[in-house]
Amino acid sequence: MTTITGTNAITLLAAAHTALRTAVAGVSADGWNLPTPCEHWNVTQVLQHATGDQIGFAAAITGGPWPSEDPFRPSGSIDGDATALLEQALSASAAAFATVPADAEQVPVPLPQGPLPLWIAAGAAALDAAVHAWDIAVATGRPSPLTADDSQQLLTVARQIVEPLRAYGAYAPELTVAADTDPTTELLAYLGRRADWTPQA
């Protein structure tokens, strides 16, 4: 299993934030209503969910404001600029995690598991941002933003947190893939996603 430290996880979070920024920046004016691998959610709703989750991580750490909308019930309507909404959420998340010592073992998170070591807490925020970056990218016809190295690290984190969350509907059941599959396909399958997803599939 890939070893991750608190410092590694913060770097992974920054990469995931970059991937999400890039995915959202590439959405065309007519792309916000496109279907995504998140069943029943379009691109706008995935963005709302992803921003809400990052704000939730920040709020858990800092005691600041929580998302104004339930991330699991996104309205599909954004009041204002989508890019600005995302930047506010990502900046709050990054700033919050920057206050946490690299060896912290009890980091508050907006997850039912309760406080977690930094490498899992920051990794969970990274997992959320990176996978939703993938959702938006493939929904809008662009390549996966997930690298093999990042996917290996994210899978290590996912195996620490995902199983209890499936009961809440946060992740679909794991899909079966070949033992020699690539890290990104393996990660996506563990989260209930098909790497070859298309709107018609």
Explain how this protein is built.
- The structure is a single chain.
- The protein is mostly helical.
- The protein has a single domain, classed as Four Helix Bundle (Hemerythrin (Met), subunit A), CATH 1.20.120.
- It has six helices and no strands.
- Helix 1 (6-25) packs antiparallel against helix 3, helix 2 (43-62) runs antiparallel to helix 4 (118-139) and helix 5 runs parallel beside helix 6.
- The radius of gyration is 16 Å and the shape is globular.
- Pfam families: MDMPI_N.
- This is TIGR03086 family metal-binding protein.
Number of helices: 6
Shape: globular
* Terminal residue distance: 32 Å
Q: Provide the gyration radius in Å.
A: 16 Å
Unreliable runs: none
Give the tally of β-strands.
0
Structural class: mainly alpha
For the largest beta-sheet, the strand count, sense and barrel status come to: none
Mean pLDDT: 95
The CATH architecture is Up-down Bundle
CATH class: Mainly Alpha
CATH fold node name = Four Helix Bundle (Hemerythrin (Met), subunit A)
Helix content: 40-55%
SSE succession:
HHHHHH
CATH superfamily: dinb family like domain
Domain count: the total is 1
Percentage beta strand: under 5%
Task: Describe what is shown at a glance.
With about 200 residues, the protein is mostly helical. Helices cover about 55% and strands about 0% of the residues. It has helices at about 5-25, 45-60, 80-100, 120-140, 150-165, 185-190.
What's the topology here?
Blueprint: H1 6-25, H2 43-62, H3 82-98, H4 118-139, H5 148-166, H6 183-190
Helix pairs in contact: 1-3, 1-4, 2-3, 2-4, 4-5, 5-6
